[in-house]
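Review session, final week

We close the course with one last complete record, chosen because it touches almost every idea we covered. It is SCP2 domain-containing protein, a protein from Symbiobacterium thermophilum with 151 residues. Go through it on your own first, then we will talk.
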Amino acid sequence: MRVLLWFLGRGACACARLDSRVAAEVAGWAEGQRLCLRIGSAGPAMALAKEGGRLRFLGLRTVPEADLVIHFKHLEGALPVFLGQQSIAGAYAQRRMTLRGDLTFAMSAVRVLLITEAYLFPGIITRRIMQRVPRREVSMGRVYLRTLLPT
């Protein structure tokens, strides 16, 4: 699960540099705004922040002072989302996760995560979990390359 969170966090940062829609979403975030995605009370976590006008991956850790915390209650609730079997909206509707923070920021962060997933997952999976699959502005290869290389 930590590997999936790492790819999602680093992939979001790559998309913020390569995709204009993600860049526009992140530009609307306040400087220093932080997002934490975690699973269970002691499970894996991932954190992102807007620093220096860019989206930055803070690592596989919980950030206690995060402005937005997306908390999956347990691993069984998170796995279908991270394996491309269920949308994040579906998980929220089934009460598999909770949200703490500003709803406007949460909606923006979810849009960033959805576009990121559209780059990281193959088309057959994204068509199954998304009502409308976002169009890719750059190749998946460029996003994967930027995700894997240190910034």
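Two points worth writing down before the exam:
Helices lie at 2-18, 20-27, 75-82, 88-93, 103-120, 123-129, 140-148.
The longest helix spans residues 103-120.
Good luck, everyone.
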